[in-house]
TrEMBL record:
Region entry Disordered, spans: 420-453
Bias (Basic and acidic residues) ranges: 434-453
Species: Amylocarpus encephaloides
Protein name: F-box domain-containing protein
Lineage: Eukaryota, Fungi, Dikarya, Ascomycota, Pezizomycotina
Entry superkingdom: Eukaryota
């Protein structure tokens, strides 16, 4: 006679697994309940894997290749909260060298993951100072992805240390080789160039290079987002002198944004090179004018296919990092840390679970969900990470900013995100707080509104 535990329906077992995963507790003990639970838990445990600095080396040395076909999603999450290292006793280069070695050791395992559909290497923005990521190790990961992988995220938050690797590998070329089969892609690197999207001399080094550029085709691509901003400025071209240094790059021919935009425009203008419904986005930014407080830090998301731009204004309301304000095109006003705010400005194309695993948002939204989406535990966003301005102001009633005071005294909404046409793409301006008729600003620096005499 079957035991009571054996009689539990599969649907109940999977709900138990989901609750355990949602609590971020280990699933391994489920393997020991009985043989039936062991068989049921193995795919669940191995289908969505998240690796951290603490377990990356162990996984690379002990993973059983026979379990490779069970893996559907693999995320490498590098963050302060999962580092388990004394960041004050080890510099970012030392940690980065160790990480690079572990990533190179992981690379030969990837071809065994023959059913892998989603791969993510993700460093949240506030953890970018933790580690300098060698680009050759990232190239090795991309080069070894199985052909089944159609969703890719490579996000170093611009902490990759060099634009060209020591063994001659060019990360942009590695990406170019896999992009034609991809469906959903998000990239945020410290330096990039047009080699990501085609063959020929790098666009941006010389004006005539665009005439000799041959783009690849992205026929499978549904969503592509390349973030080209660092600290509200553009990231540089590959090969720029010391691209890891905090140099200000405007949206010029020397920037990654300019090179990638022109490459993607070449691709979009070629008949049959991409789907008409594809989302091909480049993320940039325009820094606020310190001499004029009515001009805000502005995130720009450029739709290359449709030649439009969503300009989203942002500002710090208070000194702590969870006090960043963002106004969206649909009228929302949100508060959170810059990492959460950036995700909103990008369009929330990728989502995180409570354990850090990453997946394209479109996979969670489809009615007919795949295996990964069924097992994916949706994120639980702590209120201090992202909340409405009403919730934030209720908790901090004495904190305010000039915008809120101006809107209160005028009785008008003075700031919104903007949808712009193609004329603003190459020379974007920050979003400006409106000055209503009959009102004036005390001074450009202070920005408070008073009635005209």
């Amino acid at each position: 006679m079957a035991s009571t535990i054996d009689a539990v329906p599969d649907e109940i077992i999977y709900k138990i697994f989901a609750e355990i995963k949602r609590s971020n507790s280990p699933l391994v003990p489920c393997l020991l309940v009985c043989q039936r639970w062991n068989r049921a838990a193995l795919p669940y445990i191995n289908s969505i894997i998240v690796l951290y600095l603490t377990n990356l080396s162990l996984f690379s040395t002990s993973f059983n290749p026979t379990h490779g076909p069970l893996v559907k999603s693999l995320t490498i999450l590098i963050s302060y909260s999962t580092a388990d290292v004394d960041v004050y006793s080890q510099d970012s280069t030392t940690i980065g060298n160790t990480l690079g070695e572990n990533l190179l050791a992981l690379s030969p395992i990837l071809p065994h993951l023959i059913n892998l559909t989603t791969f993510s290497f993700n460093i949240p923005p506030f953890s970018s100072a933790l580690v300098n990521v060698p680009r050759d190790s990232l190239a090795a990961l991309v080069d070894n992805l199985p052909v089944s992988c159609v969703n890719l995220e490579i996000n170093t938050a611009t902490s990759d240390v060099s634009a060209s690797s020591i063994d001659g590998k060019h990360l942009c070329e590695s990406l170019r080789h896999v992009l034609p089969r991809m469906k959903n892609v998000r990239i945020h690197l410290g330096a990039m160039c047009s080699s990501t999207f085609g063959h020929g001399p790098v666009i941006g080094e010389r004006p005539e290079n665009i005439d000799n550029f041959t783009p690849i085709a992205l026929l499978e691509m549904e969503s592509l987002l390349v973030n080209c901003q660092r600290a509200m400025y553009c990231t540089p071209l590959c090969g720029s002198d010391d691209p890891s240094s905090p140099v200000i790059y405007e949206r010029s021919n020397a920037s990654a944004w300019s090179s990638l935009y022109q490459a993607l425009r070449c691709l979009a203008q070629k008949e049959g090179h991409c789907q008409a419904s594809a989302k091909l986005y480049l993320m940039g930014a325009v820094a606020r004018d310190t001499r004029d407080s009515s001009k805000y830090n502005t995130y720009t998301r450029d739709d290359v296919l449709r030649e439009t731009t969503i300009a989203t204004p942002s500002r710090m309301v208070w000194i702590d990092r969870h006090s960043c304000l963002l106004r969206t095109l649909d009228g929302r006003e949100l508060m959170g840390n810059p990492a959460a705010i950036m995700q909103i400005a990008e369009g929330e194309l990728w989502r995180s679970s409570i354990d850090g695993s990453r997946i394209p948002a479109s996979l969670l939204q489809k009615e007919s969900k795949g295996f990964v989406a069924k097992l994916f535990v949706p994120e639980v966003v702590p209120p201090e990470i992202l909340r409405t301005s009403e919730e934030w102001r209720e908790e901090y009633p004495k904190r305010a900013c000039t915008l809120w005071m101006n809107e209160k005294v005028t009785g008008m909404r003075l700031l919104d995100a903007e949808e712009r046409g193609r004329s603003d793409v190459f020379s974007p301006q920050p979003v400006v707080e409106r000055t209503p008729r009959g009102w004036q600003r005390e001074s450009p620096e202070r920005g408070r509104l008073t009635r005209e005499d």
